[in-house]
Amino acid sequence: MASKQDGVAALVNNVLTDGQALVKQQIELAKAEIQYSAKQAAATSGMLVGAGVLAFLAFVFALVAGAYGLVAAGLAEWAGFLIVAGLLLLVAVILGLLGRARAKKVGPPTRAIAQAQETKAAISVRPGATAAPGSGPGPNGSAAALPSTATAGPIPAPVRTTPTPTSATPGGAPSASAGGTAGTPTAPPAP
Fold first, then answer.
1. 148: CB partners within 8 A, 6+ apart
2. ∠ at Cα 80 (76, 81), nearest 5°?
3. What is the pTM of this model?
4. More confident site: 125 or 63
């Protein structure tokens, strides 16, 4: 009987050792892949920055060429460069106004704030609940972060609203069926 237990213990030990070795190898593989990806990303970033700088320089040369083209068409040098600068200023103003209009549409993350407030309300201590000072998980040991289920009682089941089926009236307007009104709160079924 002892030999069977020793055999099982050896098998369990081998499984644990092999599992640990596998996890270590997977971590090393992940590190190697991340290092390779980081090198590739750095090289790609350098190429994109170089391309951006060269594109900007080409744009500047195109503007200068456009100004000299206006000069060749018979305008004075200052007038050709002034027209090109005016066009650039016009494009800048249009882009600035469009950006400002979009910036006004940007608001706070309302869904995230609402979810955080719901979470805060769900984990805060209900009125009338007491806990021993210094025993809670909140700051300075206060029990403000989690409710004390020993003194607050059981947590009530969530209330869900279920839509009531509607049927169309002869005029085409939907009407509530005899089962109640739409959006009636109902308790979830008992487990």
1. 125, 129, 130, 131, 136
2. 120
3. 0.43
4. 63
Q: Which residue has the tokens 């790609």?
A: 44
Give the bridge partners for 166, in sequence order.
176
- SS3 string of 8-75? HHHHHHHHHHHHHHHHHHHHHHHHHHHHHHHHHHHHHHHHHHHHHHHHHHHHHHHHHHHHHHHHHCCC
Give dist(CA 186, CA 29) in Å, integer: 52
Distance between start and end Cα atoms, the chain:
46
- Determine if residue 53 is left, alpha or beta; phi over 0 gives left, psi from -120 to 50 gives alpha, anything else beta: alpha
Residue-wise pLDDT for 91-112, tens only, equals: 999 999 999 999 998 888 888 8
* Spatial contact of 119 and 125, defined as CB atoms under 8 Å apart: no
| Cα separation, 111 vs 191, whole angstroms | 31
Task: Count Cα atoms within 13 angstroms, Cβ side, for 181.
Answer: 3
Helices (H), strands (E): how many in the chain? 4, 4
Cβ proximity of 129 and 136 under 8 Å: no
Q: Residue with structure tokens 């018979």?
A: 74
